[in-house]
Amino acid sequence: MQAATISFDRFNVLADDEAQARIRAARARLGDKAVLLCHHYQRADVYQHADLTGDSLKLARLASQTDAQYIVFCGVHFMAEVADILSKPSQIAILPDLAAGCSMADMASLAKVERCWRELGEVLGAPDERITPVTYINSAADLKAFCGEHGGIVCTSTNAPTILDWAFSRREKVLFFPDQHLGRWTGFKKGIPLEQMVVWDPDLEYGGLTPEQIHNAKILLWKGHCSVHQMFQPGHIERWRKQHPDGFVISHPESSLEVCRNSDYVGSTEYIINTISAAAANTHWLVGTELNLVSRLAGEMKPQGKTVEFMAPTVCMCSTMQRIDPQHLAWTLENLAEGKVVNQIRVPAHEAELARIALDRMLAVS
Ligand code: CIZ
Ligand code: SF4
């Protein structure tokens, strides 16, 4: 048994600069035993310590290619789960604050998805022959396991179009969860009529749909969304375009269909960063994704004369990821430097095995 861990109480009260100094000291003690991953949405005072940065999948893959014993994931819970599933058995995935969840991922639970599957079966018969379950990577490991078990697959905002093709090549319908917006935008780009993409409300019997709607549907979209990306409105784009008629608008597909349709480019965090980085000097950009990413990009693009603005007038960050602050990071790293593992994210073996099937299917086709 490991010795008692150092309590967080003493870290909670640390001033920011003290926390920063202790992060640096603990990292020096740990050397390459720990790799520190930061998602694009991570706050600047934590992001500055990253060994690796990227989207959730890229980070999990890169971490598994290192020999680091500890994978310290500065992101949200589902990301650390993916890191645990894809990493070597000897590696330990850690989330510095266990309260850093994803509100979108929380909108779908295994119990509700199982009920949905049962009800779809009552209407359609044999759901495992007629519907491919597709889960966005922003979901709990047990939902990825559900997809692994039922011939389904995981997708990211980068590979969603390829994954939908894979899903439809196997079965006639798709159940897409938990983000209705990514599902709708991806289906829309494939030319699927909007009336054949119906919203499944998990709090209503049969999703609130008639048997006819279920029979006619190509994609059943789970009623889930991201609270950050739902803030963006077509009106924000319209106003900005008046001031910047030669500017470009780029949005994440977790934004509404109307926002995506009014954007010049739509894609994942990696896509947004790569597109703006590769753009001509002195161009103007309006960006519909999380604020920390947009602010960082604005600073990085300034020397090239590119302006990068945030789409919403209100401050909206990924408030759950924001919980990974310098105090939690210092606490985590000091414990690790003492050989004490805190906040390990461990997906149960059976669940991890099934989730891995759905992740491997995705990796094989994208
Ligand atoms: O998968 C990710 O990292 C997320 C949450 C978004 C994206 O587009 O990269
Ligand atoms: Fe989840 Fe939204 Fe945060 Fe992304 S920005 S991690 S979808 S809550």
Give a nutshell description of this structure.
The protein is α/β, with parallel strands linked by helices. It is built from 17 helices and 13 strands. It binds (~{Z})-2-methylbut-2-enedioic acid (CIZ) and iron/sulfur cluster.
Descriptive report:
With 366 residues, this protein is α/β, with parallel strands linked by helices. It folds into three domains: 9-100 and 320-349, Rossmann fold (3-Layer(aba) Sandwich); 105-226, 3-Layer(aba) Sandwich (Rossmann fold), CATH 3.40.50; 229-310, NadA-like (Rossmann fold, 3-Layer(aba) Sandwich), CATH 3.40.50. It has helices spanning 9-12, 16-30, 44-47, 56-64, 77-86, 110-124, 127-130, 141-149, 160-170, 180-189, 211-216, 234-243, 257-261, 269-278, 291-301, 326-337, 349-365; strands at residues 34-39, 52-54, 70-74, 92-94, 131-136, 153-155, 173-177, 197-200, 219-222, 248-251, 265-266, 284-288, 307-310. The strands form three sheets. It has a five-stranded parallel beta sheet, with helices on both faces. Helix 5 links the parallel strand 3 and strand 4. The chain is globular, with a radius of gyration of 21 Å. The mean pLDDT is 97. Bound molecules: (~{Z})-2-methylbut-2-enedioic acid and iron/sulfur cluster. Residues 41, 76, 102-104, 138, 226-228, 254, 290, 318, 320-321 line the site of iron/sulfur cluster (SF4). (~{Z})-2-methylbut-2-enedioic acid binds next to helix 4 and helix 14.
